[in-house]
Every structure is written in structure tokens, then in C-alpha cells.
Design brief:
The protein has 171 residues and is an alpha/beta fold. It is built from 6 helices and 5 strands, in the order βαβαβαβαβαα. Helix 4 links the parallel strand 4 and strand 5.
Length: 171
């Protein structure tokens, strides 16, 4: 296995959120690695992880963090790789807004793509989309994944009609 995407989180307590990124990457056939890297409690580990990521073959890093949520931005400051931040609503969070704003408000020159609160699945999909620009296998898996999403919506719409819910719209 040669991981192309790194998934990191500030604490193992974030795993229940970040697992969604791992699950969708597995579904899309994208190799990944996953570990805990805390910007505050293990800054040397964070520095080492970010600095070695490209040399280890990673192409994108997904970083989830709650509270002050410095991990995505600090990692982005240490690597040229794209970083996708996942704000996590943690136990010490102010309803998740502190995490969202910490990841969104990056200074010019240190961009971090940011997904919605607890939206690690979207981070996984976005990371796969970035890789798909140079990988036909991932491209085809994404096309199928999105077609499956559309089919589920169409199936739900038919099911509602079959259950007697009125609708003037029929595609």
C-alpha cells in the first residue's frame, strides 16, 4: 500500500468523525494513512509529519481538529501539499464555531480548504477529486460514486410518489 492521502486528527476522540474520510476513500479505492497528530500536545510530531509527507508519497492531507483547531493551518504552513481542514465539534467547543472559524481564517499565502463542521466524508471526496485530475482509476470511481448518489435521490423520489405524496414534478 502506498498512501496518497494522509488523514490526521488532533486527538483520537476525533476518530468517530474522521473515520468518514477513511471510509469514503476506501470506497473510492484511494490508499490513505491515518494517525493522531496534535498541534498543541505534540508539535514536534506535527512538524515531522508535515515536513515528511511529500517525501513519503502523500499528495493531500486531511486534518481534523476541534476547539482552537490549529492543526490544519499549522500543517499547511509546513508543506506545499494541499491541506483540507475538517472542523470538529469537540467537547470543549463553542458549538463548533471556534473550530470552523479557526480553520477558515487562514492568512494569505497559507490556504486551507475547509469543509463543513464534522464533514470528514466531504473532505475525503474532495481529496479524491484532487487526485483524480491525474488518475483515471479514481476519476471513474468518483463518476460511479456520484451516479450512485443521484440514483438514490431518484429512488427516494419514486418511493415518496408510491407512498402517495403528491408532486407536480416528474423528471
Amino acid at each position: 500500500m502506498s498512501a496518497k492521502i494522509g488523514i490526521i486528527m488532533g486527538s483520537k476522540s476525533d476518530l468517530h468523525i474522521m473515520q468518514d474520510a477513511a471510509d469514503v476513500l476506501k470506497e473510492l479505492g484511494v490508499d490513505y494513512e491515518i494517525t493522531v497528530v496534535s498541534a498543541h500536545r505534540t508539535p514536534d510530531r506535527m512538524f515531522s509529519y508535515a515536513k515528511s509527507a511529500a517525501d513519503r508519497g502523500l499528495k493531500v492531507i486531511i486534518a481534523g481538529a476541534g476547539g482552537a483547531a490549529h492543526l490544519p493551518g499549522m500543517v499547511a504552513s509546513l508543506t506545499h501539499l494541499p491541506v483540507i481542514g475538517v472542523p470538529v465539534k469537540s467537547s470543549n467547543s463553542i458549538d463548533g464555531w471556534d473550530s470552523v472559524l479557526s480553520i477558515l481564517q487562514m492568512p494569505n499565502g497559507i490556504p486551507v480548504a475547509t469543509v463543513a463542521l464534522n464533514a470528514a466524508k466531504n473532505a475525503g471526496i474532495l481529496a479524491a477529486q484532487i487526485l483524480s485530475t491525474a488518475d483515471e482509476y479514481i476519476t471513474q470511481n468518483l463518476i460511479k460514486y456520484k451516479a450512485d448518489l443521484a440514483s438514490k435521490v431518484e429512488e427516494s423520489a419514486r418511493g415518496m410518489k408510491d407512498e402517495g405524496y403528491p408532486s407536480e414534478y416528474d423528471a
